[in-house]
């Protein structure tokens, strides 16, 4: 019996045998279905007579149809089997929801018993149908059992209709009601490929699967709909699923797009080949497939996502050069276990693509400033979390993702089971992972991690479990990238707000790299050099010896004293991302071309540096440059062996069978190739027999469309062709054949070829394992190249912009800058604009506080950023934009700048100000640089002035650090009188174009020209109405504001005069009081 047909695809959900919900889509055509229903009564009798004989011959378990009389309408006749199925199909939902009038009339007219005159009770019939129907909606029930619908069969499902019917009947459930039995609705029939898809989806939930089917990768069900939305491809119904597909050669493009959109993507490939399957025991079954790779934002490593030239440097400066995977766990502090306000938080961050590995454990308050600082520095693309965290931590992570500059920048959050983070199990996982490699050098050993804090151990355990799923766990064993984040003895502390306010990595306007300090300094030639420079910007040095070492190298490179630098620089041009390439080799996820490219690049570098080392090693003064030149040739001394072992030509074509230059290193390959050659020799010997048969002494085999060893015979000589020869193809003039011998040998040859590919793949993995033994040396060499690239970049910036080398002093905390400039603003200005340079003279011992006032838009914020950036650049090891500079070494830079609320965390503008100020007060030391921009402006004048006064007094008297304080509060100028040795008043100069005469008072509407020059003294006014005029506030509003400003100004001046007179009277001696009062009466 042929399978019933479905004519249009619908989506529904039905429980399969595994109990999981799966997405089903079926075909259904409403127009044809309506027509079929109109004609079903007329055609029923004819179909029944044809189906009775076919059903008797089939092996289905459906009962044979028996003719029954049914009287409902005048022309209604048919068999109980057909109408029973039709009744259940069309009315199943109605029975569940309650019988309608139409259903009642049909049920009264139908009888499903074996006798014609026996009727079943209506309620019993209702119960029978209701108990035997699956949980589908009405429309799906109607379509599923429509006898006129057409079932679409998957190409891989080559079973006969009889075999399918047997399988289908085995799935039918029988429901008993006393002596009567009724067959229930059968479960959904899947093709072998679809069943394979269902099993894979059940095994890898939450993963979008790309399943290899021939020359394309297919998506099924919900995955197809997601792929259609993200990739902008079509999604079509096919049998039981919606499907979409992409060509195999575009896999890497679409995988990257799906991963960038935040999805977890799996690639499922065929693990059987056609030739080997043909001789296997399961040759009639579907091709075996298994998951070969998983990808997320942090694990984009492998041939599927880094094909051919992908390791070449990209010109996209906005691309996220960080791909950190971060694991976070928290526990209550020992002294405060009952509160979530203060927690012990641990994290481990790893970059699988490069091998960088960072960890830390710290105590954080409810604002989670410490955690925010680390997330800002590391910029992870993916975070692993336990099922539950504290509310403050959850809010921070949510806000960080929501406030991303673009959808592609959103952090992917992955929740792992709680047991992955439980310390007892985590300790066991970590012990087992690190306890095995006790003889291998360059790896982290158990004793190195066993003493880490418990929260770090928990995070490390979660990372081990997660990366094992991706087969990337080996990167966690490399000691070369293992370091703690909180190394206060080595690097300057830069809180998250300082990184943002100083625009170190991204500008505050658009969130892009352009307009940041990193953008100014980034002249690197390689991707790994760019990543290293970014790390330098976020981690300025605090040891004078290290700073001087970098500055000396920059000085030597910028002066170009040695000829070897040009040759060393040339080897960096168009150099691929060797750091990522080496790590891909470590994970055994590289293509042959990537391996060959990396090895060839390292070989060229080793040759160039070896030559320069012999010629110019004694002419280089910088110890840092000498180390680079001396060590790189030694570290890469044996890379030529790997480079010469593979054929670049065959690596480009990805032909692993011819990849190795010398097959003697791999006996299995050599043996398999000899078997192939034996078969070819036998086929060549068979050629003499063919020549005799065809009587053509010069006969030779031909190859057409990839089919080898074809026997081409002219059509006028076909009488000489033996009857047992197999015809392959023909044209008007010739025909091509295979003899039985050739046919058999070709099958054997194909089997040997596919077996050779398997052997070559195994040998390839063995070859990569031998390369891994030298990984640490090669990675160290690439690290030296990254440092050299960064130094070249700093030298180029210093040379182009006429920067100077700052003088660093270790025993004095000071900032003395002559004609300093803001490096970012100076570079962004056009050719017709000129930046106004300013001096800075600060010393923690005597002149530690600079009070800056001036008109709005006068350049105050730009100036204080300039001072902080010059200090930071100097401690990076860079030259600075100034005429001269003498700087102390600071342990941290703290900033409180800008005015913005934090709606996502429920914080007002003033609350944000105070929390940032509180963090600075709790963290700053006498060797810190503190910058406060208009503190207290988020509340009333009196409260804001009081808070600003108390804060400034605290930093002046208690902390005693260098402080730059910007304000519009004129009363704070009294600090210059209170602390004349420590606090000096400055303002940004300007010119006022007054509309009034010289004898009249200040007019708030006066036009102002900004001079951007820092001078001593307080500014008398802020000229806010000038900014309002520049913002095109309507003139009538400006006029009213001007009058009100005069009124408030006069009232304030009068109160000040009265206060001054009162203080004078109170301080006057009694004998002089009468004279004083007589003098003051006219003024009163």
TrEMBL record:
- Where is there biased composition of kind Basic and acidic residues? 28-50
Q: Where is this region: Disordered?
A: 1-86
**Annotated coiled-coil segments of the chain:** 669-696
The record's principal subcellular location, in a coarse class, is: nucleus
Biased-composition ranges, Polar residues, are 15-24, 51-61
Compartment list = Nucleus
**Does the keyword Lyase feature in the UniProt annotation?**
no
SUPFAM superfamilies this protein is in?
Answer: DNA repair protein MutS, domain I, DNA repair protein MutS, domain II, DNA repair protein MutS, domain III, P-loop containing nucleoside triphosphate hydrolases
Q: GO CC terms for this protein?
A: nucleus
List residues of the DNA mismatch repair proteins mutS family domain: 928-944
Assigned keywords, A-Z: ATP-binding, Coiled coil, DNA damage, DNA repair, DNA-binding, Nucleotide-binding, Nucleus
**MF terms in GO:** ATP binding; ATP-dependent DNA damage sensor activity; mismatched DNA binding
What domain of life?
Eukaryota
Q: Which GO terms describe its biological process?
A: mismatch repair; mitotic recombination
Transmembrane residue ranges: none
| Chain's role | Component of the post-replicative DNA mismatch repair system (MMR).
What family is it from? Belongs to the DNA mismatch repair MutS family. MSH3 subfamily.
This one is known as DNA mismatch repair protein MSH3
Source species of the chain: Octopus bimaculoides (California two-spotted octopus)
Classification of source organism: Eukaryota, Metazoa, Spiralia, Lophotrochozoa, Mollusca
């Amino acid at each position: 019996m042929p399978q019933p047909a479905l004519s249009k695809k619908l989506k529904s959900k039905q429980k399969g045998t595994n109990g999981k919900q799966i997405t089903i889509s079926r075909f259904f055509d409403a127009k044809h279905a309506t027509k079929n229903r109109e004609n079903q009564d007329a055609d029923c009798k004819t179909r029944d007579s044809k189906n009775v004989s076919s059903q008797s011959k089939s092996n289905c378990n459906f009962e044979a149809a028996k003719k029954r009389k049914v009287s409902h309408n005048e022309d209604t006749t048919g068999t109980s089997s057909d109408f029973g199925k039709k009744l259940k199909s069309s009315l199943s939902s109605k029975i569940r929801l309650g019988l309608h009038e139409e259903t009642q009339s049909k049920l009264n007219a139908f009888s499903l018993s074996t006798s014609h005159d026996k009727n079943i009770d209506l309620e019993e019939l209702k119960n029978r149908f209701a108990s035997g129907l699956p949980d589908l909606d009405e429309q799906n029930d109607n379509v599923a059992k429509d006898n006129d619908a057409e079932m679409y069969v998957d190409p891989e499902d080559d079973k006969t209709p009889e075999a399918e019917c047997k399988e289908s009947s085995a799935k039918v459930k029988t429901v008993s009601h006393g002596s009567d039995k009724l067959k229930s609705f059968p479960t959904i029939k899947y093709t072998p490929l679809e069943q394979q898809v269902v099993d894979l989806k059940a095994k890898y939930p939450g993963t979008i699967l790309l399943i290899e089917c021939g020359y394309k990768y297919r998506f099924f069900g919900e995955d197809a709909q997601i792929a259609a939305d993200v990739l902008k491809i079509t999604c079509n119904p096919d049998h039981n699923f919606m499907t979409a597909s992409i060509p195999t050669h575009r896999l890497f493009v679409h995988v990257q797009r799906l991963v960038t959109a935040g999805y977890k993507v799996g690639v499922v490939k065929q693990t059987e080949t056609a030739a080997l399957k043909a001789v296997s025991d399961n040759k009639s079954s579907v091709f075996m497939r298994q998951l070969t790779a998983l990808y997320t934002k942090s694990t984009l490593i492998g041939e599927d996502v880094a094909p051919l030239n992908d390791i070449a440097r990209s010109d996209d400066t906005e691309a996220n050069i960080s791909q950190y995977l971060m694991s976070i766990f928290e526990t209550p502090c020992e002294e405060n276990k009952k509160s979530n306000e203060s927690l012990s938080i641990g994290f481990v961050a790893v970059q699988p693509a490069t091998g960088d590995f960072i960890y830390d454990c710290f105590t954080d308050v409810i604002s989670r400033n410490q955690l925010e600082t680390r997330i800002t520095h590391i910029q992870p693309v993916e975070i692993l979390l336990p099922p539950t965290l504290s509310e403050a931590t959850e809010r921070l992570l949510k806000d960080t993702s929501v406030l991303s500059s673009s959808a592609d920048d959103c952090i992917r959050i992955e929740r792992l089971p709680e047991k992955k983070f439980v310390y007892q199990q985590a300790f066991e996982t970590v012990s087992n992972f690190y306890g095995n490699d006790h003889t291998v050098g360059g790896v982290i050993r158990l004793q190195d991690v066993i003493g880490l804090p418990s929260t770090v151990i928990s995070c490390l355990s979660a990372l081990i479990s997660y990366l094992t799923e991706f087969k990337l766990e080996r990167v966690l064993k490399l000691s070369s990238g293992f370091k703690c984040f909180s190394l206060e003895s080595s690097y300057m502390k830069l809180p998250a707000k300082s990184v943002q306010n100083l625009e170190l990595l991204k500008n505050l306007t658009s969130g892009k790299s352009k307009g940041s300090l990193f953008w100014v300094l980034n002249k690197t030639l390689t991707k790994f050099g760019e990543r290293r420079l970014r790390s330098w910007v976020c981690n300025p040095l605090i040891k004078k010896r290290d700073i001087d070492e970098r500055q000396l190298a920059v000085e030597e490179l910028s002066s170009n004293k040695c000829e070897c630098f040009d040759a060393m620089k040339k080897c960096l041009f168009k150099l691929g991302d060797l750091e990522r390439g080496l790590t891909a080799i470590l994970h055994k996820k590289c293509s042959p071309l990537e391996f060959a490219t990396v090895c060839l690049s390292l070989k060229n570098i080793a040759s160039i540096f070896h030559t320069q080392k012999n010629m110019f090693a004694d002419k280089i003064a910088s110890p840092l440059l000498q180390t680079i030149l001396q060590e790189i040739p030694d570290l890469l001394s044996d890379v030529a062996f790997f480079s010469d072992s593979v054929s670049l030509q065959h690596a480009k074509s990805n032909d692993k069978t011819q990849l190795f230059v010398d097959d003697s290193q791999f006996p299995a390959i050599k043996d398999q190739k000899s078997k192939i050659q034996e078969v070819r020799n036998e086929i060549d010997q068979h050629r003499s027999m063919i020549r005799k048969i065809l009587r053509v002494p010069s006969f030779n085999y031909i190859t057409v469309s990839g089919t080898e060893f074809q026997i081409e015979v002219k059509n006028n000589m076909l009488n000489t062709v033996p009857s047992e020869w197999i015809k392959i193809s023909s044209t008007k003039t010739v025909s091509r054949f295979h003899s039985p011998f050739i046919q058999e040998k070709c099958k054997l040859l194909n089997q040997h070829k596919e077996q050779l590919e398997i052997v070559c793949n195994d040998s390839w993995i063995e070859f990569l394992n031998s390369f891994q033994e030298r990984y640490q040396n090669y990675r160290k060499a690439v690290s030296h190249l990254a440092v050299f690239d960064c130094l070249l970049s700093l030298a180029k910036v210093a040379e182009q912009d006429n920067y100077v080398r700052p003088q660093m002093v270790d025993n004095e905390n000071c900032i003395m800058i002559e004609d300093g400039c803001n490096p970012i603003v100076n570079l962004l200005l056009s050719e017709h604009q000129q930046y106004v340079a300013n001096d800075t003279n600060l010393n923690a011992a005597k002149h530690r506080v600079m009070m800056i006032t001036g008109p709005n838009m006068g350049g105050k914020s730009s100036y204080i950023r300039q001072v902080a950036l010059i200090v930071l650049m100097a401690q990076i090891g860079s030259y600075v934009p100034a005429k001269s500079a003498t700087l102390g070494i600071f342990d941290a830079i703290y900033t409180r700048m800008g005015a913005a609320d934090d709606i996502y965390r429920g914080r007002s503008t003033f609350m944000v100000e105070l929390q940032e100020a509180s963090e600075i007060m709790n963290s700053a030391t006498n060797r810190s640089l503190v910058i406060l921009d208009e503190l207290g402006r988020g509340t009333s004048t009196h409260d804001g002035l009081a808070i600003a006064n108390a804060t400034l007094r605290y930093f002046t008297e208690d902390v005693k650090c260098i402080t730059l304080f910007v304000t519009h509060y004129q009363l704070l100028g009294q600090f210059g009188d209170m602390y004349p040795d420590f606090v000096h008043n400055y303002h940004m100069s300007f010119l006022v174009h007054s509309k009034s005469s010289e004898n009249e008072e200040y007019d708030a509407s006066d036009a102002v020209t900004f001079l951007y020059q820092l001078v001593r003294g307080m500014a008398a006014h802020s000229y806010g109405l000038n900014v309002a005029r520049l913002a095109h506030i309507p003139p009538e509003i400006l006029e009213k504001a001007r009058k009100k400003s005069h009124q408030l100004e006069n009232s304030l001046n009068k109160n000040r005069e009265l206060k001054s007179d009162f203080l004078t009277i109170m301080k006057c001696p009694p004998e002089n009081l009468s004279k004083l009062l007589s003098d003051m009466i006219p003024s009163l």
